[in-house]
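Take a protein:
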Amino acid sequence: MAPLRGLALFVLAATTVATIAPANAAAGTASDDSVRYAWVKGCTKKDLIVPCGAVTLTLRSGRTITLADARVTPRRANGKIDKKDTAPLTVSGDGRYVSYFRGDRLVIRDVNQGTARPLPGGADVLPPGVGQDDVDVTLSAGGSLAVIAYESKLPPLIVNLRNGRTTRLAAKTSVLTLSPDGRSLLTRRDTEGNTAEFTVLDANGGRGTSRSVPLAVFDTAQVALADNATTVALLDKMIPAKPRLRTYDMATDTLSKAVLFSVPKGEEPQRLYWDTDSTLTLWTGRGNKRDGAFVSFVKRTVDPGTATTRKLDSFTVKSSLSTWHLPGE
């Protein structure tokens, strides 16, 4: 691979700074509780499972928290409420922060403190022509960085929760993954041929290393950027029972050999990410026999060099839920 092959200029839009106090990613301690998964109860209506309850957080301690202020069903761009869908909801990788709509404003909640505040820099209010069902929010593992995607209606928006600064990305750019510490993110822009441009940005949109990468790097099921803003873990698109793991070095333009690791029959990889302690973590899910709806999840660490796995957590959920969200999604 040749670095920076056939690159176009990567342009960032004007940056906005807000004065609101940012979230502190280091505020949590080992004794803090965290979200195991978030969910909304579902009810059957004309052969469909529709949301019919409040947004609920199940914590690792076994407690549950009902978010009475969280919007359950989204408002579309035309102003109508979609009663068959659930509004956007995101849990940080460490499970200590949750983002959701409170009415028509995007907020972030500290799970342990119980306080919620609007996203800064005007990011809490959707632009004209954008519905809540168009929005997808990604949080860094420690909750200090957020990225708002608007499907194809607008380029993504970076929201630095440390300093309140917001940055609009260039058109036709997507955000693949955030580093656990929230100081870096990896973007993708499709280029001619079977290549794509990977670029590392800092939390304020500043451009770092950029590479033109081949299909073997960008056409993967899962992508995870480490805190060093260089190492990218890649989970190949393979049969679920035998996924292949690689690492790509943005600094040296080097792709490692694939290592194979096994997951129990019936489990499918759901999410791959680095934790704040630089541990590579994989969530897998298992569906029921009736309709394939996921009913259980397992969290494991994965050694990127040997593919050795270690089970950290597992739990079951009701198949009748309208929606569920694991930490990191």
Summary: Confidence is low (pLDDT under 50) at residues 1-31.
